[in-house]
Amino acid sequence: MSAIKHRYEFVYFFDVSNGNPNGDPDAGNMPRLDPETNRGLVTDVSLKRKIRNYVSLEKEGGAGHAIYMQEKAVLNNQHELAWKALEIPADAKDGYKKLPRDEAKARELTAWMCRNFYDVRTFGAVMTTGVNTGQVRGPVQIAFATSVDPVVPLEISITRMAVTTQKEADEQSGDNRTMGRKHIIPYGLYRAHGFVSAKLAERTGFSDDDLQLLWRALTSMFEHDRSAARGEMAARKLIVFEHESAMGNAPAHVLFDAVAVAPAGAQQDQAPRSFADYRDRIRIDRAAIPAGVAVHELF
After folding, report:
1. Looking at the domain assignment, is residue 207 inside a domain?
2. What is the number of domains present in the chain?
3. Higher pLDDT, 95 or 225
4. Model's pTM, two decimal places?
5. For the stretch 119-133, what's the b/e string if a residue is b when 16 or more beta carbons lie within 10 angstroms of its beta carbon?
6. Would 172 be classed as within a structural domain?
7. Residue 221: inside a domain, yes or no?
8. Are 40 and 185 in contact (CB under 8 A)?
9. Is the residue at 41 inside a domain?
10. Dihedral of the CA atoms 24, 25, 27, 28 (nearest 10)?
11. Residue 124: pLDDT above 80?
C-alpha cells in the first residue's frame, strides 16, 4: 500500500457532559484547566490513546495493525519482535541489541516496526531503549484540545455501600460505607487541531487506508471509551482540509482561522449545557480558504 500523496489538516470538536475528559494526576485527578482563562484542556496523549484503543478494537491486532504503545506493554519486548522476525543477531561481544552498523539492516528494523505497528507509522516513536529499532517521526500529530468556553469543574461527594477490609467494617459496626469524591465538568465543547504530513508519510508508509482508519477512529472512538469517570463524551464535528500537493498549498494556521466558533456563554444568560447551544455557531469561512485546498466536513 503506497503512502498518502496529499497533506491534510483537521479541526476536531468533541464534548463532555457531567464527566472528566482528562484528569490531571498532579491535581487530584481534577479536569485539566488553563489557569489564566479557565478553559478546559485535553492532552494530545489522551486523544492518541483513544485512537489506539479504537484501532485495536476494530482491527483486533490484525496484520499491520498491532499497537506499539499499549497498556502494560514492555517496549523492549516489542522491539525484540523485529529483531527475531528479521533474524538479526545481537552484538557478539555483550549480546546488546544496538542498532546494526549496517545501515540497510538498521533501516529494515525500523521499516518492520512501521509495517507492523499502526501507531508507529502514524504517530512515530522513539525505539532506541535498550533493544534498538531506531526512531520514527510520525506523519500525524495532534495538538492539545481546548474548550470553546470556560468550564467550571465540580467536586461531587459519592458514597459506596461497601468497605474494603473487615477492619473497616468492624470500625463502622457493620454500616459499611465509604465516602469518596468525583470531579466533573457539567458541560464542555472542546476543539483540537491535527496535522497529517504526506512527506513524513513517505518515510513510514502511512497509507490512504491508514488515513481512513484515522477518520473512523476520530468519529467513533468515544463510543468505545465509556466509563463512569468520563460521563457522556461524543465526537461532534470533523472538518478536514485537503491540499492538492504533498508539501501543502497554504499555512495550517490560515485554514484553522477559517473555522470560527461563537462562544455560547457570551451570548446567553446561562452557561452552555449541550451541543445544541453551539450547533449553529460553528462556521467555516470558505471565502478565506486559499486555492488548492479542499474542505471536507466528515460529520
Report:
1. yes
2. 1
3. 225
4. 0.91
5. bbbbbbbebeeebbb
6. no
7. yes
8. yes
9. yes
10. 120
11. yes
Contact 10, 238 (CB under 8 A): yes
Cell for 158? 459519592
Residue linked to cell 472542546: 190
CA 27/CA 34 separation, integer angstroms: 13
Residues in a beta bridge with 91: none
Domain span at 216:
8-155+182-297
Beta-bridged to residue 178, according to DSSP, are 160
The whole-angstrom separation of Cα 102 and Cα 89 is 12
Question: Helix crossing, 103-116 with 75-86: angle to 10°?
Answer: 120
Cα–Cα distance for residue pair 53/76, rounded to 1 Å: 21
d(CA 183, CA 14): 19
Joined grid coordinates for residue 20:
472528566
**Alpha-carbon span 154 to 186, nearest angstrom:** 8
pLDDT band at 267 (very low <50, low <70, confident <90, very high): low
Contacts of 52-57 with CB under 8 Å at 24 or more apart are 52/118, 52/119, 53/221, 53/224, 53/225, 54/216, 54/217, 54/220, 54/221, 54/224, 55/118, 55/119, 55/213, 55/217, 57/224
Model confidence at 93, pLDDT cuts 50, 70, 90, reads low
